[in-house]
Design goal:
The complex is a heterodimer of chains A (116) and B (117). Chain A is 0% helix and 56% strand. In chain A, a hairpin with a 6-residue loop joins β4 and β5. Chain A is built from no helices and eleven strands. In chain A, strands 2, 4, 5, 6, 9, 10 and 11 form a seven-stranded mixed beta sheet that branches. A four-stranded antiparallel beta sheet of chain A has the order 1-3-8-7, with no helix packed on it. The N and C termini of chain B lie far apart (38 Å). Chain B is mostly beta strands and 117 residues long. The chains are: A mainly beta (116), B mainly beta (117).
Chain lengths: 116, 117
């Protein structure tokens, strides 16, 4: 595997289900990100992990719970979601969390989530 | 106020012609970076090109070039010799400052480019 991978690619869940999204980066990067992309809206940054510590949480509802067990893996645990949470969830990683403005992010293919 | 503005929701271009996708930004931070990403229908965001606020020359990467006009706060993407595979959503993004100091990547709403054969 190369780059950033995400599983599953598609997920349909009911509002009472609990599921997890997985992201893995094979680039040796130190920072990882979760984004939400809803239809006709800009990407919204949800969480940032730098060296396995959460450095940003953009007022995301508690029904989304991130986990970063090591610098290569990032999870997004989902429970009691709402239909408006249906979106494309993108994971990204970057090289140097302490770097300057140039800190290119490499994205995974995303998980298309549908909440019924 | 929006930090990143892409005023063209959709654009059409004839194959082999050049096209310019507009992006304007708003920041008071003297140190920032501007990025363009391509998102095909598969969903993956693909990095295209980067321009730093202190870079003296416009960035170029193959068929992609960035028309950076700092005083006007614009960072338009120019794609030369369009190909059918260029059809996708294109996002302009900006990072202010450093990630460790709270700097984050802010995205525009995107422009959908369609290349006609």
């Amino acid at each position: 595997e190369t780059g950033v991978t995400q599983t599953p690619r598609h997920l349909v869940m009911g509002m009472t289900n609990k599921k997890s999204l997985k992201c893995e980066q094979h680039l040796g990067h130190n920072a990882m990100y979760w984004y939400k992309q809803s239809a006709k809206k800009p990407l919204e940054l949800m969480f940032v992990y730098s060296l396995e510590e959460r450095v940003e949480n953009n007022s995301v509802p508690s029904r989304f719970s991130p986990e970063c067990p090591n610098s290569s893996h990032l999870f997004l645990h989902l429970h009691t979601l709402q239909p408006e949470d249906s979106a494309l969830y993108l994971c990204a990683s970057s090289q140097d969390p302490a770097g300057g403005p140039y800190n290119e992010q490499f994205f995974g293919p995303g998980t298309r989530l549908t909440v019924l | 106020a929006q930090k990143i503005t892409q005023t063209q929701p959709g654009m059409f271009v004839q194959e082999k012609e050049a096209v310019t996708l507009d992006c304007t930004y708003d920041t008071s931070d003297p140190s920032y970076g501007l990025f363009w990403y391509k998102q095909p229908s598969s969903g993956e965001m693909i990095f295209l090109i980067y321009q730093g606020s202190y870079d003296q020359q416009n960035a170029t990467e193959g068929r992609y070039s960035l028309n950076f006009q700092k005083a006007r706060k614009s960072a338009n993407l120019v794609i030369s010799a369009s190909q059918l595979g260029d059809s996708a959503m294109y996002f302009c993004a900006m990072r202010e400052g450093q990630l460790s100091q709270g700097g984050k990547l802010i995205f525009g709403q995107g422009t959908e480019l369609s290349v006609k054969p």
